[in-house]
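Look over this record before class:
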Amino acid sequence: MEMQSYYKSTFKSGKSLAGPTLLDAVSKAVATNEVNAAMGKICATPTAGSAGVVPGVLFGLKPRLEPSRKDMLNFLLTSGAFGFVVANNASISGAAGGCQAEVGSAAAMAAGATVELAGGTPQQSAEAFAICLKNMLGLVCDPVAGLVEVPCVKRNAAGASNAIVSADMALAGVTSRIPTDEVIEAMYKIGQTMPSALRETGRGGLAGTPTGQRLKQEIFGD
């Protein structure tokens, strides 16, 4: 378990460049998605492939912010509300919109909820959501061998990091010049123009590399 080893050797030794809160969120995001990859029971937030981001951020922030159970439920409610808006106005499916629609949406959901958990305003939550989603526009869905492992697991780590950084920016007063609704619309349009090879078919991107094809052959014998 690479992340577990890194967590023990780096985080607990105090050598992390990212700091304890961020690395804790990343390790929990990766752990959750590894459970998904191993066919374990997870909650799709908003999808199975991006399921590590929201809980990873929540439990990574828990030691720092010390939220009550009600606060944690509000975090999940807020993230779900943002996800509901995306699902109804764009897509949360990698097959329809690429990884921007999965990990991108999950990260933005977590960013908005993080601001709420930290005591920010609803407007700041929306700004964090927009900033975060903008950072992941165009991200393709290219699972090696069609499995939700490579590069999906590590993208959950990137999503968790993006969420916390975006929340920090919004809490500091940084705003998105493009309104939240328009960012969501842009993501939808990008997904519509994305080639099918880059939308969960396992044919393009990293899945189409020589190593990606070799791994597919080793797994399935094709």
About this structure: The chain has ten helices and no strands.
